[in-house]
């Protein structure tokens, strides 16, 4: 904590404050996390319940729900700072201390959230303050309504690349996978901009292609101990990285899933089980990649795209070698 910044927003942070793991809320330690979250209210004045889902590297991930059960959210906190931030994420304000409970959050994971918050708050307040403080407002909020996570929000929770409490950084393979995707993005975008001339319509589509191809080739040609669980983790990690570039995670997940299915079908044709291979399949894939990333028809660039399909082959081979050597 002494080595962290005394700040409201971390210097060099990217993405939306509190909602990107690249722009977490700075607080002072585990108790600082609980006190900061307990101080929040929604814009319409409802206090919140919060519990810790896990971590992405050193960044803690908390699930939030307002006391009326209407607003569900995920907030990212960095506890390695000498003080708590004095600002709130969009959609929240600091509540009046006299109008709500003192403690409404926990840095434990609550299996049935928020229904078990009363017990968690009792335990936390007793261990820290010496007194089990569970206010009437908390008891009433939990007793008067049934809390149900919205379907889309549940899907978002399932997609978080949580890895528990790690002391330094995430699994180094996740970082290497993200760096590899970034490198492949630079290659394909250079080809579209400088060789084919169609440009890049949406840089995120470049990342979807690079990530989808790495995932497919890892699962097909990666190390002997390759497994779908790890592929799921590095896909989530890279997609979370995109959130740091102001990409909405819900939309990013949906778009990526569609792209992965498209690229998987193309690569199934390029890498059949019988070992046969056709350059025509590579050209078809290059046309599809060109149109997806540029956002325009590849027809006017047909000859250049066909000539440069060898670049796609090189990208695939590079990803196979990377998966075998770095993702084991």
Please provide a written account of the structure.
The protein is of the alpha+beta class and 328 residues long. The protein has 2 domains: 25-159, no CATH class; 172-326, no CATH class. 50% of the residues lie in helices and 10% in strands. The chain contains 11 helices and 6 strands. It has helices at residues 29-38, 117-129, 136-144, 151-159, 172-196, 203-221, 228-243, 249-270, 279-294, 302-307, 309-326, and strands spanning 25-26, 40-42, 48-56, 59-66, 72-78, 92-94. The chain has a 4-stranded mixed sheet, covered by helices on one side. Strands 2-6 form a two-stranded antiparallel sheet. The chain is elongated and about 75 Å long.
Number of domains: 2
- Portion of residues within helices: 40-55%
User: Beta-sheet strand percentage?
Assistant: 5-15%
Rg, Cα atoms, Å: 23 Å
- Calculate the mean pLDDT score and round it: 85
Keywords:
328 residues; alpha+beta; 4-stranded mixed beta sheet
Would you kindly provide a brief summary of this structure?
The chain is 50% helix and 10% strand. The protein is an alpha+beta fold and 328 residues long.
Please describe the topology of this protein.
Elements: E1 25-26, H1 29-38, E2 40-42, E3 48-56, E4 59-66, E5 72-78, E6 92-94, H2 117-129, H3 136-144, H4 151-159, H5 172-196, H6 203-221, H7 228-243, H8 249-270, H9 279-294, H10 302-307, H11 309-326
Parallel strand pairs: 1-5
Antiparallel strand pairs: 2-6, 3-4, 4-5
């Amino acid at each position: 904590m002494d080595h962290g910044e005394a700040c409201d927003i971390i210097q060099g942070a990217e993405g939306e404050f509190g909602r990107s793991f690249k722009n977490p809320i700075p607080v002072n330690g585990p108790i600082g996390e609980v006190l900061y979250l307990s101080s929040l209210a929604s814009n319409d004045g409802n206090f919140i319940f919060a519990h810790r889902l896990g971590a992405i590297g050193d960044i803690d991930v908390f699930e939030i729900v307002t006391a009326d059960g209407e607003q569900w959210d995920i907030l990212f906190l960095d506890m390695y700072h000498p003080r708590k931030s004095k600002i709130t994420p969009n959609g929240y304000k600091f509540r009046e201390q006299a109008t709500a409970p003192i403690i409404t959050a926990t840095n434990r994971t609550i299996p049935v959230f928020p229904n078990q918050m009363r017990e968690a708050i009792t335990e936390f307040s007793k261990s820290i303050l010496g007194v089990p403080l569970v206010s009437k407002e908390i008891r009433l909020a939990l007793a008067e309504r049934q809390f149900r996570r919205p379907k889309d929000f549940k899907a978002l929770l399932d997609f978080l690349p949580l890895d528990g409490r790690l002391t330094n950084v995430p699994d180094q393979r996740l970082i290497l996978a993200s760096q590899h995707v970034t490198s492949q993005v630079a290659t394909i975008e250079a080809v579209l901009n400088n060789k084919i001339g169609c440009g890049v319509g949406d840089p995120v589509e470049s990342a979807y292609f690079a990530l989808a191809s790495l995932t497919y080739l890892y699962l097909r040609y990666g190390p002997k101990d390759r497994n779908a669980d790890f592929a799921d983790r590095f896909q989530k990690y890279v997609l979370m990285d995109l959130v740091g570039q102001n990409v909405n995670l819900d939309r990013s997940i949906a778009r990526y899933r569609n792209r992965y299915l498209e690229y998987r079908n193309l690569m199934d044709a390029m890498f059949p089980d019988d070992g046969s291979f056709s350059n025509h399949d590579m050209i078809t894939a290059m046309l599809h990649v060109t149109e997806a990333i540029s956002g325009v028809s590849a027809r006017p660039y047909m000859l250049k795209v066909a000539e440069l399909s060898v670049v796609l082959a090189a990208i695939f081979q590079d990803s196979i070698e990377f998966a075998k050597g770095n993702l084991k």
